[in-house]
Backbone:
């Protein structure tokens, strides 16, 4: 098959990892993939490279907001459509994050020409942007919030199939008018060989901690992800832990105001000297921080549209890291943690319960490590990108709807 994968994210950020996981496995199965994303840094020219049946096309970007950004989205969409028209016998266009204008514009234009080219359009819906979602979180304004809501709720109606990562979005898509039989849930996955390739044998836990100015006797807690609104919640939970010397690492997209708020809360709770707050980092640095940690944290709120509508991509990396995990009993996490016994579940938005689970791991390390080992086993055997891509091919790309 010849497949176009469309993603608005910059390289190695957010849903890029979901797209990349599928693309690499599709290529391994002798399918040919054209993979669009944005360049990692602000650039005016595109970058193109070929790797094992994948053409990676990293599109330029210059502006994040305003009218200029909208024009950029539109012209990137036009380029994608013109590129697609040149592909002979195109089989599938798989559009991720259609709330992004770049993906929305290109998907709408491709829908018009698909009647002549006869390819299948697949829309992937893995989080909510409008009305309480990511655009609201970024404070980009009511107009952009409504535009995002329009795109993400209307464009799936143009798709032959909709893929999603959780039951919340499955039900939301039905409410938007997508037929139930045209929706397929496919989780985010992992590639243990790729993950392990980033772990240098000489780069031990102790060495990584030295790089981060952490001592061997500290109990290091880690939290990483695109949405970082849970950090104040975690600081309150950490402040209740009475066992051991605690340190906390957080990685994500922090605004200046968020950083100020976090340091203010940390100082108020007596934790300012115990936290390391990083911004968006490379995948290698992300994994190094994982390996420096003792316990991994994944808080979610049942009151948050963003938390309910996402299947955190970082869960796969958490599972592979052989570290105990504490998560909130919310959404798809509830199902996976209970069915697969991969970590500790805490009541949603309950600081004391979350803190208590961290303390239980510290005090019962042997049992916690057994659960961590099981999490890695489950990840390799059940949630590998290979198995998930098999499902994508059989249930979506080759299926008749």
Residues:
């Amino acid at each position: 098959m010849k497949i176009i994968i469309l993603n608005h994210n910059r390289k190695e950020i957010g849903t890029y990892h979901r797209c990349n996981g599928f693309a690499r496995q599709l290529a391994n199965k002798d399918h040919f993939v054209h993979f669009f994303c944005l360049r990692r840094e602000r650039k005016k020219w595109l970058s193109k490279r070929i790797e094992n049946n994948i053409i990676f096309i990293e599109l330029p970007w210059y502006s994040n907001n305003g009218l200029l950004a909208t024009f950029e989205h539109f012209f990137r969409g036009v380029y994608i459509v013109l590129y697609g028209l040149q592909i002979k016998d195109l089989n599938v266009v798989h559009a991720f994050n259609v709330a992004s204008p770049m993906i929305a514009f290109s998907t709408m234009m491709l829908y018009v020409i698909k009647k002549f080219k006869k390819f299948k359009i697949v829309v992937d819906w893995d989080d909510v942007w409008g009305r309480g979602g990511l655009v609201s979180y970024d404070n980009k304004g009511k107009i952009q919030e409504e535009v995002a809501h329009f795109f993400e709720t209307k464009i799936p109606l143009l798709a032959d199939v909709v893929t999603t990562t959780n039951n919340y979005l499955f039900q939301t898509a039905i409410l938007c008018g997508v037929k139930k039989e045209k929706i397929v849930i496919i989780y985010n996955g992992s590639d243990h060989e790729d993950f392990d390739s980033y772990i240098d044998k000489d780069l031990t836990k102790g060495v990584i901690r030295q790089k981060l100015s952490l001592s061997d006797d500290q109990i290091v807690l880690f939290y990483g992800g695109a949405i970082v609104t849970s950090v104040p919640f975690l600081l309150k939970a950490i402040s209740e832990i009475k066992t051991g010397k605690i340190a906390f690492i957080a990685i994500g997209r922090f605004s200046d105001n968020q950083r100020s708020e976090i340091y203010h809360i940390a100082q108020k709770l007596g934790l300012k000297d115990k936290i390391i707050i990083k911004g968006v980092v490379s995948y290698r640095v992300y994994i190094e921080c994982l390996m420096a940690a003792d316990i991994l944290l994944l808080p979610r709120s049942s009151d948050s549209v963003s938390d309910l509508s996402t299947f955190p991509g970082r869960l796969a990396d958490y599972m592979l890291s052989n570290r105990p995990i504490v998560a909130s009993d919310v959404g798809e996490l509830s199902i996976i943690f209970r069915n697969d016994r991969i970590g500790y579940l805490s009541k949603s938005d309950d600081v004391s319960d979350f803190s208590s689970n961290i303390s239980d791991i510290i005090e019962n390390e042997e049992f916690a490590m057994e659960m961590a080992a099981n999490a890695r086993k489950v990840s390799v055997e059940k949630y590998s990108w290979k198995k998930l891509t098999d499902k994508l091919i059989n249930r979506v790309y080759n299926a008749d709807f």
